[in-house]
């Protein structure tokens, strides 16, 4: 009976956690606006629910990167008008000068997870120097590997095969000596 109590308690805890995670019944909408005030880049995220501004909801801001989103600062709570204001750094690198900025609400008790994005020309264009692409380097492919790597690998292969060949020849020598001793 004792093991059934633990099983029932575990089932109740799982059901409670499932129901509490889906308790977020309100849907919010985020609208992004981008402004350049003086020398600052400002992103404003307006959070509304059913046409009314949402107060004191934490909003996270992030920038799209290659594998995931890069957070910009900490979460900012909305004010009495439902707006969270962020200052965007001016030195975020980009290939073409465009940044995709995301604002999202995650793990709020009252509102579902919501995300909005917008694209803006606030990135710092990165110029890459590919002048050494054709040179031999450790990171290059097989054709452009350093000479000493090629020599070292060929020596290692030759030593391994040489040892194996020597061992096989010794086995044949032993066999030949065994036949000569019988006669």
> Rg from C-alpha positions?
33 Å
Overall mean pLDDT = 86
Quaternary status? single chain
What's the count of strands? Answer: 11
**Largest sheet, if any?**
5 strands, antiparallel
Uncertain parts: none
Give your account of this protein's structure.
With 183 residues, this protein is an alpha+beta fold. It is 31% helix and 31% strand. It contains two helices and eleven strands; from the N terminus they run αβββββββββββα. The chain has helices at residues 2-21, 147-182, and strands at 29-37, 40-49, 52-53, 58-64, 69-71, 76-77, 83-88, 93-94, 99-105, 114-120, 124-125. Strands 4, 5, 6, 9 and 10 form a five-stranded antiparallel sheet that branches. The chain is elongated, with a radius of gyration of 33 Å. The termini are far apart. The model has no long low-confidence stretch (mean pLDDT 86).
Task: List the keywords.
183 residues, 4-stranded antiparallel β-sheet, alpha+beta
Blueprint of the fold:
Blueprint: H1 2-21, E1 29-37, E2 40-49, E3 52-53, E4 58-64, E5 69-71, E6 76-77, E7 83-88, E8 93-94, E9 99-105, E10 114-120, E11 124-125, H2 147-182
Parallel strand pairs: 8-11
Antiparallel strand pairs: 1-2, 2-3, 2-7, 4-5, 4-6, 4-9, 9-10
């Amino acid at each position: 009976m004792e093991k059934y109590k633990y099983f029932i308690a575990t089932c109740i805890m799982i059901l409670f956690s499932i129901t509490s995670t889906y308790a977020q019944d309100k849907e919010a909408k985020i609208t992004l606006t981008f402004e350049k005030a003086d020398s600052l880049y400002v992103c404003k995220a307006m959070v509304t629910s059913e046409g009314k501004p949402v107060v004191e909801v934490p909003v996270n801001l992030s920038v799209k990167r290659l594998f995931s989103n890069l957070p910009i600062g900490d979460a900012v709570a909305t004010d009495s008008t439902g707006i969270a204001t962020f200052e965007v750094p001016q030195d975020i690198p980009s290939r073409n000068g465009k940044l995709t900025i995301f604002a999202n609400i995650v793990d709020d008790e009252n509102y579902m997870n919501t995300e909005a994005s917008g694209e803006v020309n606030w990135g710092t264009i990165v110029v890459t120097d590919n002048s050494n692409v054709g040179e031999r380097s450790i990171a290059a492919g097989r054709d452009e590997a350093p000479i000493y790597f090629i020599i070292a690998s060929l020596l290692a292969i030759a030593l391994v095969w040489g040892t194996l060949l020597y061992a096989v020849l010794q086995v044949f020598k032993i066999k030949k000596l065994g036949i000569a001793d019988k006669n």
